Amino acid sequence: MKKKKIVLTALYISIFTTIVLTLGSYSGSPILGGFGSISRLMLIFASTSLFLYYMRMNQSPELEPAHIKNEKREKDDKKNNRPDRPSTRFVDVAGLDEVKEELVEIIDFINNPEKYHSMGAKIPKGILFYGPPGTGKTLLAQALAGETDSAFFPASGSEFVEKYVGVGAKRVRTLFEKAKKEAPSVIFIDEIDAIGAKRTTESNNEKDQTLNQLLIEMDGFSSSQTVIVIGATNRLDLLDEALLRPGRFDRHMFIGNPDVRAREEIFKVHIKNKPIDAKVDIKNLAKRTHGMSGAHLSNIANEAAILAVRNNKKNIGIDEFNQAIEKVIAGLQKKNAVILEKEKKTVSYHEAGHALVGKILNTDLVAKISIIPRGEALGYVMYAPEEDRYLITKEELYNKIKVLLGGRAAEEIIFGEVSTGAKDDLKKANNLAYQMVCEYGMSNLGNRVFEPAIIKSCYGMIDTEIKSIIDSCYDESLKQLRDQSELLHEVAQALLEKETLTGEELDTIIQAHRQKNYSIAT
């Protein structure tokens, strides 16, 4: 503003002098008339130049609209090779309310550091996000940088891993040097377990040197440098203890799969710019997507939109969402798959066995049974849990294994032999039994937990217990289906005719069968 006043004053003086000299030449004044026409032309030129310069100053960024200033700043940032300032904010992150509340304190620290420095408080140097993939760890890091208008430096742990000694350590130094220059800044290292894994007694290899450099850099911040390091991993148990201690990663935050309320909020975020049919019930969709991550829900909303375009619809309806959920869970539908009639019959009894054992044991609600091939599966049963569960009892785990083995049991009862169709079921059943023995203390070995390091030495004992659980569950599935063999035939025949049964249609078949048997008995 001071510069503008100087230019404006010079402009006024120049114009005034030009007018006085011009009038003096016409009035015949010997003093003023002594200045020639060339001098007057120079003053006129100077006045014009000052006027144009002043007008250009009035169009400076101070008086420009905000969006024009932001566009110019973005161009300048790119020109000067400055890091991005993410546009993501906390309003773009649905669910995870508890985590966002914890991060608000760090945002306030970055925005108002004096308030905390006056109390002698130090900003946390590092935050570690851990949990299953697709739960929003990267999005949270971007939102933290966006909320504080901090420079954002994303990196992956694998970027620092090289076969040449010293390269990884040099890249770590370079990254932190850039972040310090651009402070306040956020360094985000995804899959940090690639460089932060526990060190061993082996030789000091390249990965260890890279980790050592990371530890040194995280210790090297001064109190005046506002640099936050955010790490993300799916395997917290792999990380070195020196990396996890306070002073490096001060805060560890678990980012898990969303609950039903959070899934509803996530769906709302992903459909807010999409034309959704009024009949679509978001609460029902949230209930049906139990156990899915935020990435799964985003994919479902996107797939539903693509299907609506493919079907030439103006709105995204419930049919598109149903198909999208099936696509995400079971894979791509094989429309032209040629299946032998014998195999189709086997698949029908297999899937009917799963569904019936689930109904008999009253496990998760059956939403759909299908013998239409999807992905690698020739058929599938979709379940829709009525509520989110965080604790599972020993009996419920046994029932889950029985349902998984119900398909194989149905094949043995009807055909007298089993097929390879139970490959995935067997894998899941054995994994559950392994967890019961080694992690949950739910076997004849009592309250024992077996760490990975000692499993090899106890393998025979563990294997015996796993076999005992699997065999007992399989025998129970066989017994249940033999007792309901007529109902098994009816469900399988309905599947062969329609290829797909909803949960309501299955309930109707079961209810009709029970009424028929009751009438015969009476």
UniProtKB/TrEMBL annotation:
Q: Which GO terms describe its biological process?
A: cell division; protein catabolic process; proteolysis
Q: Where is the active site?
A: 351
List residues traversing the bilayer.
Answer: 7-26, 32-54
The entry's Zn(2+)-binding residues are 350, 354, 425
Intracellular or extracellular location(s): Cell membrane; Membrane
Provide any one GO MF term from the record. ATP-dependent peptidase activity
SMART domains, alphabetized: AAA
* Binding annotation for ATP: 131-138
**InterPro entries on file:** AAA+_ATPase, AAA_lid_3, ATPase_AAA_core, ATPase_AAA_CS, FtsH, P-loop_NTPase, Peptidase_M41, Peptidase_M41-like
Tell me yes or no: is Cell cycle among this UniProt entry's keywords: yes
Q: Where on the tree of life does the source sit, at the highest rank?
A: Bacteria
Pfam families, per this entry?
AAA, AAA_lid_3, Peptidase_M41
The record, for HAMAP family, names: FtsH
User: Entry's PANTHER family?
Assistant: ATP-DEPENDENT ZINC METALLOPROTEASE YME1L1 (PTHR23076:SF97), METALLOPROTEASE M41 FTSH (PTHR23076)
Protein name, per record: ATP-dependent zinc metalloprotease FtsH
Q: Which organism is it from?
A: Geosporobacter subterraneus DSM 17957
Q: What is the lineage of its organism?
A: Bacteria, Bacillati, Bacillota, Clostridia, Peptostreptococcales
